[in-house]
Predict the 3D structure of the following.
Amino acid sequence: MRKLLIIFLLAALGAQAATPPIYYLLWFDTEDYIEPAADDAALRLAQELTQRGIKATFKVVGEKARVLEQRKRTDVVAALKQHDIGYHSNYHSIHPAPAEYLNGKGMIDGEQEFAMRELSGFQAVEKLFSMRPSCYGQPGNSWGPQANKVLRQWGARVYMDDGGQVGYDQQPFWFGSMLYIFNLGPNAMRANLDKPELLPDATRAFDRAVDRLRATGGVIQTYYHPTEFVTTEFWDGVNFRHGANPERSDWKRPNLRSKESSERAFQLFLAFIDHVRKTPGVKIITAREAIDVFQPREQPATLDSARKLAENIEVHDGFSPADQLLALLGVAPRHVDGPLRRAATTLKAQEIPRAAFDRAKQDAIRAIQQFGRLPDSVWIGSQELDLPDFAATLAADSGTGNVQIRNGNLAMERRIGTNAAKLYNWVIHPEGYAPENLLELARLQAWTLKPAKLR
Ligand SMILES: [Zn+2]
């Protein structure tokens, strides 16, 4: 009997080792601070999931936290605390939305602006739930790269949302030293809350994602808003559409669903989530747990991988271009941001003395250590060698004689979205809103981009 048990346990362990994990994240943007029925919807969702043994992540808006406190909804707070808590901006759709106030700014002043506008909301959520928010996600598609560093400093290490501004093969990735669960393409799906006949489409989409990920492991996500379960229109579209910014006294409440329609929405959601829950080999996790299912971000790149920067500045063997550059410079793995701006090489010579190049390398190392980011360029006397050219030159350098200059090929920038008008098309942004500057900043930060590897 004991022998049989041991054989069984060994078989179970073997099966576990052989099957790469598939993780599923369920999250709710808990944002509607205008319609009180949305509080009840959040309560019910949290309770239903707890009854099923599922932990979701509720990304809460700062103003929503204040309103829950004012309305004395200790029941909602207690129910949500059974799950994970994230942050979903201070005011969500009151203008200026995050992309509105970040566009036109650089990294440093944008980070300061984000911190100034968002800290009180982050703290309101933290205080109400007695829990540091584990993650952030922008309202709508109001995304900007300046959020990353600030969130990291506040202790939120996961960026969990959806958008097309940045992505990596429809799976989680590292960007600006945040774990991004973002832009998962067909690995994000949901059940339509109004059409029971479409439920099989949603469960099939989930099954297909599981099948796709069986061999490699990976992440699937689903997201909703509690308010969707009780309203027929979004609370913010009613009030803040295309730049409108009415005073609080003029806010309108969204239209409510009928009791039957609301009940059907809950039932459709629960039927979908029961399908997920009963699928073998799928583990449901929160944003807080997600960080531990991936290998740590800081891994030293091998020199063999780093040398490939000479051909193209891109992820090689899973290492970000920044990881590779650090390895070439002999700097230990550490957090480092991309450059602040796009410089242009002014150096005319095709080869330079080694001593001048060695001084440039020392400058680059000092900049990384002092500022925690890659320099825009290095100086060869009075002339500049921009960062891509410096990286490619360093990667190709034989180590003896004069140094041959090589032009960098910024291949990794293709992973950043290019159509700002489309990527920022959101009912709350002004019509035609196209913050190209935010995408340009994202391209500069693409030095930090790499896939997140499961443990
Ligand atoms: Zn939202």
